[in-house]
Specification:
Layout lengths: L15 H30 L7 H7 L9 H14 L3 E5 L5 H13 L3 E6 L2 H14 L5 E5 L2 H4 L7 E6 L6 H8 L3 E10 L6 H7 L6 E6 L5 E6 L4
Parallel strand pairs: 1-2, 1-4, 2-3, 4-5
Antiparallel strand pairs: 5-7, 6-7
Length: 229
Amino acid sequence: MSDLSVAPGSAGLDDPAVRAVLNRLYAQAERGDKGAMRRAYDSAAKLAAPPTPAEASSLCADALLPVDPHTGRLLYTLVRMLRPGLVVEFGTSFGTSTVQIAAGLRENGRGRLVTTELDASKVRKARENLAESGLDDLVDVREGDALELLRGFGEPVDLVLLDGWKELYLPVLDVLEPALAPGAVIVSDNLSMLPPEYLERIRDRARGYVSLDLPLGDGIELTTWTGAS
C-alpha cells in the first residue's frame, strides 16, 4: 500500500496526525483483512440461514474493510468542493473513511459528520482513531441500528457515504431521502455487491437521481439527488 502523504505539515489529508492514522489503518487492513474475511465466510457457511446484519457485523468485527484509498481521496475532495453542512456515513468500521471526510470538514472550517456502526468494538476503535487524528470534535459516532439512528435530521443532508451492509443501502436511503438537500451527493461503495433494486432506484431520473459508476476500488456509484418530481 502506497503512502498517502504529499506535503508534511500541510492541512487536510496531509496533516501529520491524519496521515499517520490513515497509513496505519491501510497497512493494518492489508495485513489482516483477507484472513479476517476468510474466517468470517467460513463461519457464515456454518449458519443455518444467511447472516443477519447483526450477525454479519459480529463475524466481520476484526476486519477493517476500509474504502479504497482513491475513494477516500474522492470523499475528501467532494467535501472540499461541496462544503457540506451535514455529512452522513452508514458503516463506520474502524473510521478510515470517517477520518478522510472529517479532514475535509476541518479544512473547510464548517460542517459535521454523523456516522453509524453496529459493532461496539468498531465504534470504540473508530473513536480512538478520530481522537488520535484530532478530528473527534467534528464527528458524531452513533452505535446501533442505522435505520433508527439516521431519522429526524433537522437540517439538510448534503453528502452521504453508504458503506455498510449492502442489503440495507435501500432502506437507509429511504430513511435519508426526506432530508436530502437538492444537489446532495451519494457515494455508494462496493458497486459489484449492490442489490439490483438499489441500483435501479438511484439510476432512476424520474425518482430524482442522476448517477454514474466509477472504477475506484471494486467500483462505486456516484449519485446526485435533484429532488423528487
